[in-house]
Amino acid sequence: MLRVLAAFAALICFSTLSFAQEEDPARKILVGIHESPPFVMIEGDEVSGMAVDLWEYIAGEIGVEYDYLPFETVGQLVDAVAAENVDLAVTNLTITEKRAARFDFTQPWFDAGLRIMASETPRVGFWGVVAGLRDAGYLKAYAWLAFIIVVSTIGMTLFDRKFDTGFPREWTEGIAESFYSVMSVVTSGKAPKRKNLFGWVGRIWQALWLVCGIAVMAYVTSSVTSVMTSLTLTGTINDVSDLAGRTVAVSEGSSAEEFAHDSIITSISTRNLRASVEALENGWVEAIIGDAPVLEYYLYRNPQAGLKVVGPIFQPEKYGFGLPHGSSLRRAMTIEVVGAHEEGVINDLRKEYFGDN
Q1: Confidence class of residue 202 from pLDDT cuts 50, 70 and 90?
Q2: Are 256 and 317 in contact (CB under 8 A)?
Q3: What percent of the chain has pLDDT over 70?
Q4: Which CATH number applies to 237-315: 2.60.40.1400, 3.40.1190.20, 3.40.190.10, 3.90.180.10?
Q5: Most buried pick, 73, 95, 116, 277, via CB within 10 A?
């Protein structure tokens, strides 16, 4: 009997010791972070932001010490917490089914969603105009005009070689001279100085050429202008339905990347929002899909960027802190998140970073 009691006491002591080691408040935990203003902002050794402030408030309440470890992409941070390489993931981390299967989340602490960022003025590139001209049928007309220019050049060369004694005898020089004359009429409506070989009949013929040249120039100008106007109007992105057939930028490993993949939207993955904006400004993509508060904050801090956030939130999301499966911190942190909601701490942080609206 004494042996049984001794074994039972030893088991209790071992369990208590193990639990104490798990909950040891003196142990420093490693907190993975991903820069995503205004939730996580990194300047040198200084780390700030709404998610950081909330975590540091919670850390003070539960009495833990920590070190920060930055990750370049949110995908790297997600992989790190899933592999238990960090004890906690702090950023605007969206709670999704796929992530919840890999690691645990605390109670949500922020409601958000996805929105779209696009250029205020759609960029119409050269090849976009060419495609628009093709779709409108103008390229066929241009091909006929080019054919007429070639025929006119050859005809004028033959005509001048026969009737104008001062016309160049070399075929290459003669064709170049005739081509210049034809293009002068077509592009400017003005004929170069030429000998009038047939009196008033020749003048009338030259006048008719000028009329044709002006008509051709007006046709080309109006067709290009109409196509560019049409492209500008149809190229405007107002909501997610306008993304079909376009290329968008998303942050690597983000819920936006997952949404684009599931929605079969052509996308390129970037390290962060700054890289996505660079891709948009360079014309590599036509829009950015990202977290609404992050996009809106970027626009607030960069009003001269020539960008806009359009459309309503089309993918409601909730942010939480990520922890490895079975983490002893999860319950304590969840209780503190709920308390921060009830005591107005989170609302105060929201006002601090986003204002009253």
Answers
A1: low
A2: no
A3: 83
A4: 3.40.190.10
A5: 116
Query: Which of 79, 100, 65 shows the shortest CA–CA distance to 32?
Result: 79
Q: Options 3.60.70.12, 3.40.1080.10, 3.40.190.10, 3.30.1300.10; which CATH number does 22-109+320-354 get? A: 3.40.190.10
Half-sphere exposure of 2 (CA within 13 A, CB side): 0
Distance between CA atoms of 115 and 316, rounded to whole angstroms? 10
Assess contact for 86 and 36: CB atoms under 8 A: no
**Cα–Cα distance, 45 to 47 (Å, whole number):** 7
Determine the Cα–Cα distance for residues 37 and 34; give it in Å rounded to an integer.
10
> 3-class SS at 151?
helix
CA angle 246, 249, 251 (to 5 degrees): 150
pLDDT at residue 99 greater than cutoff 50: yes
pTM, two decimals, is 0.65
Span 103-115, average pLDDT: 97
Average pLDDT of span 176-202: 70
* Residue pair 256/250 in contact by the 8 Å Cβ criterion: yes
Name the token pair of 203: 């003048």
